[in-house]
Amino acid sequence: MKFGVCYYPEQWPEARWAVDAQMMHDAGLQIVRIAEFAWAAMEPADGRYTWTWLDKAIQTLAEAGLQIILGTPTAAPPVWLTRAYPDVLRQDANGRGRSHGTRRHTCPNSPTYRRYSQRIVQMMVTRYGQDPCIIGWQVDNEFGGGKTGRCYCPHCAAAFRTWLQARYGRIEHLNEAWGTVFWSQTYANWAEINPPDTAIDKPNPSHVLDYYRFSSDSLGTYQQQQVDMIHAGAPGRFVTHNFMGLFRDLNQFDLAAALDFITWDNYPTGNPERWRRYLLPVGEAAGPVVDYAYDVGDPVITGMAHDLMRGLKQRPFWIMEQQCGHINWGHTNPGIRPRTTRLWCWHALAHGAEAILFFRWRATLFAQEQYHSGLLRHDGRPDVGWADLKTMQAERALLAQIAAASLAAEVAILWQYDDLWALQEQPHHHDYDYMRQLFVFYQALSSSGISVDIVSPMADLSRYKVVLAPTLHVTSSPVVAALQAYVRGGGHLLLGVRSGFKQASNVVTAVPLPGALSDLAGVTVTDWQSLPPPAGWVLQTEVPGLSGLATYWVEALQPHGARPLASYEHGASAFTEHGVANGRVYYLGLYPTPAQATAVCHYLLAGVGITPLVNLPPGLVARCRGPYTILLNFTDHPLTAHIHGRDTRVAARDIMVLDQASLEG
Amino acid sequence: MKFGVCYYPEQWPEARWAVDAQMMHDAGLQIVRIAEFAWAAMEPADGRYTWTWLDKAIQTLAEAGLQIILGTPTAAPPVWLTRAYPDVLRQDANGRGRSHGTRRHTCPNSPTYRRYSQRIVQMMVTRYGQDPCIIGWQVDNEFGGGKTGRCYCPHCAAAFRTWLQARYGRIEHLNEAWGTVFWSQTYANWAEINPPDTAIDKPNPSHVLDYYRFSSDSLGTYQQQQVDMIHAGAPGRFVTHNFMGLFRDLNQFDLAAALDFITWDNYPTGNPERWRRYLLPVGEAAGPVVDYAYDVGDPVITGMAHDLMRGLKQRPFWIMEQQCGHINWGHTNPGIRPRTTRLWCWHALAHGAEAILFFRWRATLFAQEQYHSGLLRHDGRPDVGWADLKTMQAERALLAQIAAASLAAEVAILWQYDDLWALQEQPHHHDYDYMRQLFVFYQALSSSGISVDIVSPMADLSRYKVVLAPTLHVTSSPVVAALQAYVRGGGHLLLGVRSGFKQASNVVTAVPLPGALSDLAGVTVTDWQSLPPPAGWVLQTEVPGLSGLATYWVEALQPHGARPLASYEHGASAFTEHGVANGRVYYLGLYPTPAQATAVCHYLLAGVGITPLVNLPPGLVARCRGPYTILLNFTDHPLTAHIHGRDTRVAARDIMVLDQASLEG
Amino acid sequence: MKFGVCYYPEQWPEARWAVDAQMMHDAGLQIVRIAEFAWAAMEPADGRYTWTWLDKAIQTLAEAGLQIILGTPTAAPPVWLTRAYPDVLRQDANGRGRSHGTRRHTCPNSPTYRRYSQRIVQMMVTRYGQDPCIIGWQVDNEFGGGKTGRCYCPHCAAAFRTWLQARYGRIEHLNEAWGTVFWSQTYANWAEINPPDTAIDKPNPSHVLDYYRFSSDSLGTYQQQQVDMIHAGAPGRFVTHNFMGLFRDLNQFDLAAALDFITWDNYPTGNPERWRRYLLPVGEAAGPVVDYAYDVGDPVITGMAHDLMRGLKQRPFWIMEQQCGHINWGHTNPGIRPRTTRLWCWHALAHGAEAILFFRWRATLFAQEQYHSGLLRHDGRPDVGWADLKTMQAERALLAQIAAASLAAEVAILWQYDDLWALQEQPHHHDYDYMRQLFVFYQALSSSGISVDIVSPMADLSRYKVVLAPTLHVTSSPVVAALQAYVRGGGHLLLGVRSGFKQASNVVTAVPLPGALSDLAGVTVTDWQSLPPPAGWVLQTEVPGLSGLATYWVEALQPHGARPLASYEHGASAFTEHGVANGRVYYLGLYPTPAQATAVCHYLLAGVGITPLVNLPPGLVARCRGPYTILLNFTDHPLTAHIHGRDTRVAARDIMVLDQASLEG
């Protein structure tokens, strides 16, 4: 378990560098990330390079014993580039482009921008690739941040046509796949196709989904060019990128595939502001954040982000930017209290972080992030996270012990960006969101102390006893085959509402639902309805905790092979279980409340012999890692967990680690 | 009373057509509408036509005994057209145009678009005009849908200037009519005039009203070209268009005038979402839809739309698209229950529908309307409306009997698009809407079981005992003359607040209010005020139910000839009655609450000897047609109506028909 | 104390002018403003002038004994100008420009617009400059109104570069001042700099603040050209402009500096709608306006506007446009009641108005302001304000007596547009607004009957016993020096949270807070936090009324020379007092509630021997002017004030004047 920090030597007087480096070292920091926004400082004019300052900065940091991660600076080009080639600027769906003075204002499909990006990266790799102080590279910065995941400029239009041609081969196949016969949309040639008109009117959803896939792929190929150059010129150094947790606009699985491991930027007080409207029940999402969470964020939301980030490659990750004070982009940007930073770090460790770099060393005196705190204040004095850093230095041994333990989870939730995007475009129910449908299950498991991986359907599923697919909406042959193989191999799979509805090109299946998953589930959906609460169908079941009203989204099931576990008043089945070879497939034909989701999860866990921790009080997080159970109390009061028959009390805003021995003792 | 369905043969395999046609026939459907979005299928390239598929589809449907309505496909041009002539694309007030892939993205004033529209329609008329299977034609589709009622492109700017020149003759007259001396707006020539800048700032309201009139007229002349071609080439066939109920942006009276009869598209669960913010009291409009209405819509709102549609030509209408399951464009898009479709059909019949076509035959597998249900599900099995269709087959005799009965109403409400538009631009009170002011009276009458026509002031008013003009805001000589004639002929006319305020060019009258209606009303408005509740003026009156607070909009009346029926605490009159020849004119100087509107309506009805049904419970609709009283219970509970001294119980979600004989028996 | 009215002869038949003029005279009006929107009437075509009508109008008004103010008509150019030179049109940050038909649609930096503006003004000055009937001139109209304070057109981009060059001299200095090293923003030359991209993304705050300053300066130099021409050609006549109270987008101090005195446009029912969201606590701002205020506006908000307007030049002002009925641009635009206009006039007098012109003579029949009332109604009859005008004629003697009395205030609040703009761009807490932070103190003083000047830090502060700087956020050497001088001279200064945070170029100070004000305050801020209520720090203090919770914004203070007056539970100081030479500096490290602000104000006032009036009931305003205490009861009930040991009862919606003698008697 290593600690580090993000540093911007170009923003401080050279004379200060050595002071800062020494302070970092003394504070126990081992890693420092630099350079990811310094293009203008490296290449102040087209083709003119100034490396002296960077040489010096690297040397100074290295001399203090710090290991260095170099960021490629392509997220913010110099002004001479955008002025000389205005066509490198991105455009949103309204045709508006942002200009110089911010970041991510360029298009990944601009040939000019690619050329210049490659040149500056190649120059860096040539100069620093073999430098022993450089342990790894970060490509660009937060792809898609600030609503830049999709560009609608002419370069993108052209690249989209090429992408479509590669996907569909012949225009007739595209017409068939998209159903363009509808409203006279039929295309005669590729040149007639534009990006979808998402800003003004509802376009064809097949058109939209392909544009979202294309946009993600565009950043994928953009990233790949840099990855290849770095791997070639900097052998032995890792290449990574800093992801954004539950960010919705890019296929993070695809982007992660090219990297050695992934890192992500964790801002717990900002996470709920970014994502709660997609995750929490609609009423709660609009209400105030719970009291204890005002300066710690919502640990379930942050935990879900950790678990997705770990799931991107089914392996541990780094935190490239860890909040350690207030942020500058939230609603109230609350200051944090002593011990908050430590809670966040332990929380990350429990979920699989191998290293944590704080953002940032010292609060900037100028520009957009003036109000973002760091380990040091504007005036150079320690800010509130500093003391926690000291505390954790004293905990190094225990941190290392846990960091070495296994992260194996027995339960996985499936996540598909195709599903997220398809349902975002056509939620049908205003309050329906793919992430909300996943979160209700995630929260049920998390509050039961169950470790969960959030993975792609194409991941190695054989590691899991139970796999939950709360909405496997868009099906493709490989995904169906993977699920079949998993179940036949003995896995237990839960399918939820709206599964199997769409084919890969985002059109509806013509066979009874759940379409291609119908045989696996052993049921047919004979009716489905979107319902506004309190309208609903009443459940009858012997599954403990599952009874009550089903609303929001309901499906009437007709089993053919499956066994009903719950049914509706009017007779149709609501929840079924289907034995397939060595495995089992459950189909849940309703959108559950948190209590219903918990009932379903516990029923499934019982089927594979997993015992959940029950009755964890809100704000107390329990996470198992190898022989350790890590308990984190995010509240202002001591809390007690009843674990394996014993009461364990955790002090307010504190953590406690139980090991197997003590639990069994 | 006929039933039919909307069908898109081009969207299904040719092999399926005969199956579908037979199923339609077996389900008792007699009519099928086709082709209204199939331009690309008819003319896949400029001037190249492919009629074989359409010939075959018509033949297949006809062979199953179905009568066919052909839609002209001009609401969605092929991509080759918009790519070759980008100037056919419409622009909104922000200069933004939508591109290919949706519909209604073209400008009705584009000469090129008119030329191509005429050519494809002429080709269809030439080929199918004499076909005995084709009973009628639908021109285009839902003019103005999706906020396309007004375009701001250069073609429109040019056409607007021509339109203005025709209206005003000389630029001096326009300057005078609009009051351009204000803020140096004076024009020296027509070329200086642009469409009003409605997106960014408040333009001159005279400029705005004329642009709204011009925009409506533009679609009128566009429609007329098609109507003329069809009438010429398809003798004996009807020509119609599918209107959109309470749609606000076009003058539906004008558009209807050119048609043989009108049809409209009725989506009861969507109607409240579209219109309740204009109709209901502000607080209610923001609240949840009442419980029983979640899957039936608000029957008062749907009823008002029926009555306006019938009033467009003062004659019965068709439903061209009748919802029969969930829609795809609402907030929650609730699934519907058994018997809902039947309630809607009976409701339409009670209000004057002569035929009902369901939308659509089978749910589409692709494109924008995937989530819109039909009579059949995606997988081809019957959806929930199917059983109701069967039920109604058994009710055919009764349906036919009622369909033959008279629709005569004794009460009319006047509707002027000039008033709607003028008040929309200058509500003065944030919560004031022309439609809200009409709805409070409509609801009072509707919940008293009174049949109402909603008609233009230029309609034949002599049929009505009572005419309500809740706000006759923009006056013109013909309208004033028509009202005078109506009253002199013995009619009873109610004028409400803000009447007579504007002259035809949307400037204020310089004479005391109600301006040109002052003599007719026998009153002068000496003061008027917009008021935020609970600020208000207290009423004193002997009219039963009218007392209490007047707020929101109040006018102090000074009678000159009229007799006060109610006055304010401070002495001025609030409600007056003026005998004129054989008729009577009432002036109501306040914006009434629902209870006050009911009191006023009952007072007026008593004056002409009409006895309202009173105390209809919410959700129970009563509508008289000839000798029949049709009762519809939209709730989940049995309800009892006290009609003509007798209690009649209607089962939950059911209908009951009383005839005169049984009532008198 | 004079009364007058705004009149538009060009909008009425010439035959009516003499009638109107005589009526004005008979009503006791002495002044009339004309011509400020009549450019098209003066110059109907480029270079063709028509003065006859204006000659005649001036003559007619003058013959009735009226004194005339001429407005220059540059706020609304004729259409021939904008059509011939489209580049004179302004653009917003989205690149959208509004077109002819409204007003303020031009750019102050357009050379063409400046040329034409100068020509028409010069023509007017040449013709009317020496006219004895003309007593003064109004330049343009409401600079910045309708969100036109900032333009983003190419002319502005060019002018901005010139402005920057003048400010920074060398591009390196700008880079240093703005911190452009951040995100590779560094500029190599002036031509690379654009207006900030405020519409799409967050730009560099230094870039933004400079653009706001530049925009204000642009209207300043535009105004100066007209001021100079008028002063040169119309000797002895005053030159003024009509300001907009608490308008946020321009530096009204700078604009006022060039004028002989300032006037402002006072619309009390509209003032809260414009400003309450910036002034009131967040919950209250969203709630309904208090009952009594529905037709009088919020007297504290209007009072604050009066006090800022008086503070612009530290001298009395005129009301150029005084509401006298309903307005047309608000939410409900309530009608007003008898005596409302009189209350407004007395309120203005109490705050320092020397003359009041009503807006407008008669309601316009046409164009945008049809629904704006005047002294006369559309039909020419008196509207509700007319009777109040008559009442005030009878009060002329008392009005004159008070108008002659001193306006000296002993307390001032500092207002800096730099602070407002910097905090608007970076509030850090969503609910933080500079004006809200000032208002809590203003309201505390106002409701204690204390007269307050709202002035620039560069004003003559020596007149005040106490100066409050609730947030002196952006510091510069002159401001710091001015405050030091004030304190050393014996003044008592209060500094509030976030003071001293920024340097003049809107970057953060690198020294401990409050930065350049630290020595003066005798404290260092060791921690500061934005907090969402109810999270907060608990106060401990002996200052009466100050205890309780500090939330929203808290600062931990470490005194070095100062004496703690309050501290937080955790030990740090919260409120301090620092003796400096003959003066005293208080630092309040928390954002106070209204009660806490009152406690702090009373503590400070006690320190200089000022006794506040306490317990004024809401809606009762007390304002001292010379020997008079003017009491205004804005409510519907009689209210009693306890003043100097005696109860004084003021009738509902009435005023009462107490003089020193009666109070001491």
Describe the structure.
3 copies of one chain form a homotrimer. The first copy, chain A, is an alpha/beta fold and 665 residues long. Chain A has 3 domains: 2-147 and 237-404, Glycosidases (TIM Barrel); 411-607, Rossmann fold; 620-664, no CATH class. Helix content of chain A is 34%, strand content 20%. In chain A, helix 13 links the parallel strand 8 (317-323) and strand 9. In chain A, helix 1 (14-26) packs parallel to helix 3 (52-63), helix 5 runs parallel beside helix 8 and helix 6 packs across helix 8. The model of chain A has no long low-confidence stretch (mean pLDDT 96). Chains in contact: A-B, A-C, B-C. The interface between B and C is large, with 46 and 54 residues.
